[in-house]
Amino acid sequence: MGLRSACRSILAVCALLLAGGVMGQELSRPAYRYFEIGNVEAPRPGSTEPAMMLMGGGEWVPEAFDWWLRRAGNGRVVVLRASGDSELQERLYRDIGGVTSVQTLVFTHRRAADDPAVLRVVRGADAIFIAGGDQSRYIRFWKGTRLNEVLNEHVRAGKPIAGTSAGLAILGGYSYGALDGGSVTSPAALADPTGSQVTMDSDFLHMPFLSNVVTDTHFARRDRLGRLIVFVARAARERGNDDVVGLGVDEDTALCVEADGRGRVYSLDNGYVWLVRPEHSAARLEPGQPLEFRSVPVTGVGADGVVHLDGFRVQRPAFTAVAEASGGQLRLAYD
User: Which of these, 273, 53, 43, lies nearest to 155 by C-alpha position?
Assistant: First the structure.
């Protein structure tokens, strides 16, 4: 490389670092890694609208992504994650399409969440996608940081947000944090609902319509109804009232929520969104004792239904049932 070329390269890198990005390259920092694809300077084709895409993990649903990206004005998407690499942005840009660019920030340390370069990238997003992985890392890396504030500002500004798997787990007003390093099963949670494996968190992200909601993912496939009922009971006890709602999303399924709270289900495999909405508190929620929680209404929402999150009304439910937790077991009776 000649001197003139070397100087041009150095000046270009310096300019992009000041702007908070590196065009077409990986930016390595001790606390995070950065990737991008597309033209981050391109104007957004359309306007943004408030929207949430709540994904249960597994395969992406292209129709749901198309819906979400239209509400992002088909502009710039920022992917946030705490593991993995650039594969999601490649898939989003090349396979889903309909965006001007995708930028990815992979967090490896909490200090990245206060880094001005990171914050500039996130503030420039037309839509934010929180990837799967380990939700405890999101809580430990982001909660109480400037990034935490910027994420809430993004939503208040009427811009779309989405989360899948661990990324959805942290969107509720109350969340299961998996802070013990594992992922509690329904039998373990039902057997000891206040035990060390059931690590709850709150006062993190503030999403429209989700302030009194606990979310869960990979739902039917991993038999998570029992643990979601435990999470709801725990959150209701900590909140001091019984208006906490559980929202579970099946794999290969997404709930797409409009600005007015109307949510529709998109799925590759007839998946459901599960609503758990108790009308009273648990009869027993004590250390070392199985959960006793009777007559818990459960509603399934499929592709033909609509759920109104501004009151959790369901039009055309796929099913209704009543759950009973007793003696460490869960029984579900369909209507």
Answer: 53
What is the Cα–Cα distance from 79 to 100, expressed in whole angstroms? 14
Is the domain of 185 the same as that of 167? no
Structural domain includes residue 286: yes
* 156 lies in the same domain as 40: yes
Is 30 part of a structural domain of the chain?
A: yes
Q: What count of Cα atoms within 13 Å lies in the side-chain half-sphere of residue 44?
A: 19
In terms of domains, do 28 and 139 share one?
Answer: yes
Per-residue model confidence (pLDDT) at position 29? 52
CA 109 to chain centre: 20
Separation of first and last alpha carbons in the chain: 74
Walk along the chain (335 residues) in steps of 10 and give the mean pLDDT of each run: 39 40 46 98 97 98 98 98 96 97 98 98 98 97 98 98 98 96 96 96 97 98 98 94 95 98 97 97 96 98 98 98 97 96
